[in-house]
Each structure stands twice: as C-alpha cells, then as structure tokens.
Amino acid sequence: MHIHAHRQTTTVVLVHGAFADSSSWNGVIKKLKHEGFPVVAVANPLRGLSGDAAYVRDVLAGIDGPVVLVGHSYGGAVISDAARDSDKVKALVYVAAFLPERGESANELAVKFPGSSLGEALRPVPITLPDGSQDVDLSIDPSRYHHQFAADVPAHVADIMAVTQRPATAGALGEAASEPAWRTIPSWSVVATEDLNIPRELQIFMADRAQAQVREVAASHAVSVSHPETVARVIEEAAGAVG
Question: Where is the AB hydrolase-1 domain (predicted)?
C-alpha cells in the first residue's frame, strides 16, 4: 500500500450523520493527517437529504484534486447523492452507513431487517424550518445514548457525545434518495457488527448490493470513535486503490 505517494493529492472529505457531529471523526482525522492526507470534516446540516447533499456538493466544488468521500450513518445517504456525476470523487467509503437505492429513505431501510432499537430511543421536538414549514427534530435521549449509539466507547466520552449530538429532522430521515453515486464510483463499507442503529444484516445487504468492498468490525454504531485506526485504514486503502 503506497500511502505516502498520495500525500497532498487526494483529499479525504468526512460527512457525519445524525446524532453526531464532526468531532466524531477526530480519531480518524488524526490518523489520516499523520499519513499526510488533507482532510475536510463537513458540518452536515441534517435538515433534508437533497439539501444536505447540495451543501456537500458545494464543499466538494471548493476542493482541488481528487477526493475520497466518506459518510457515517445517514451521511452515507448524503454522500451517495452528493457524489453523483462527480468527476472529482474517486471513491466512496461508507462507515456504519446507509447506502440507499433510488427511492429508499433512511427510515424505510432501518426497519428492513430486525435489530435496530433506535426508534424507541429517540426524542422528538417540533420545529419550524426557515421556509416556515413544520418538521420534527429527532435526537437520542441522553440517558440511552451510550447503549444505543456508542456502547463500546468509554462512558465519559459517550456522555459528551450525547450532549453535543446534532439532531436530524424527521423529514431528512424520511426523504427518498435519488440515483446513487455508488452505482458508478468504487465503494468501500465498514460494517459495524454490533450496531443498534443500522443492524449488521442491513449493512451487509446494502454493501453487497452496491458491490462495495466490506470490512467488518466488532463495533457499535460509533465505530469511527471506537475504532479510528481501522476506519482510517479502509479510507487509505480506498485512496490507494483509485489514486
């Protein structure tokens, strides 16, 4: 693996999902920076799938050179849309993430196989969006966060993650995906086998459908926090394979 040959050439763009923020990538960022990769961690708006993808697309437009685009959880749906028709994105890496087919939503996929206990852990808050429409912000009850989202992360870290989590709108999680970029861009999938948000069986189903290269990790949904070395290694492999 000729990682160092890719220094300052391939930029890694990281997109977090619902109930997290960009700091969930900190361990991964440290590893990637050590290997010389330029890294951008996007603040995913979590307001609506097409709008979130458009925002990531704008971020990509400001980056010179090739990109490996990485998404965690709902962020997988965002990168699948954002990279479509991109000549800049050379690889997609899904980290305990959704890889929706056209017409599928995160909510619809989440119940396709048994094993997700996310629904009962969520707290809804009615909100008014900037355009005046009504929606519901969803976050994980802080008392359930450690078990639900980050069971293999130290409790004191999970407690902070619970406080800093960013809610997603019900509209974003219910919005149907458009034509996925994984159909034309080489993909990798880090499958978290102990995931209570997106069950392993679902992650494998989506990865196989997308013909993604799979790396299974005995980890919670917060695999980027609990196993940053493994996640970074898969990203590096993706960069090396397409560089």
Answer: 12-233
Which of left, alpha, beta for 86 (phi over 0: left; psi -120 to 50: alpha)? beta
Q: Is residue 130 part of a domain?
A: no
pLDDT digits (tens, 9 = 90+) for 4-55: 444 558 999 999 999 999 999 999 999 999 999 999 999 999 999 999 999 9
CA 161 to chain centroid, in Å, comes to 16
> Could you tell me if residue 150 is inside a domain?
no
Q: For residues 98 and 105, what is the distance between their CA atoms, to the nearest angstrom?
A: 9
Q: Which helix (H) or strand (E) holds 122?
A: strand 122-128
In the numeric block, which tokens belong to residue 117? 């206990």
For residue 43, the enclosing domain spans 3-116+167-242
Letter string b/e over residues 106-122, b meaning 16 or more CB atoms within 10 A of that residue's CB: beebbeeeeebebeebb
Q: Are 46 and 167 in contact (CB under 8 A)?
A: yes
How far is it, in rounded angstroms, from Cα 106 to Cα 100?
A: 7
- For residue 148, being part of any structural domain is answered with no
Please report, rounded to a whole number, the percentage of residues in the chain having pLDDT higher than 70.
Answer: 97
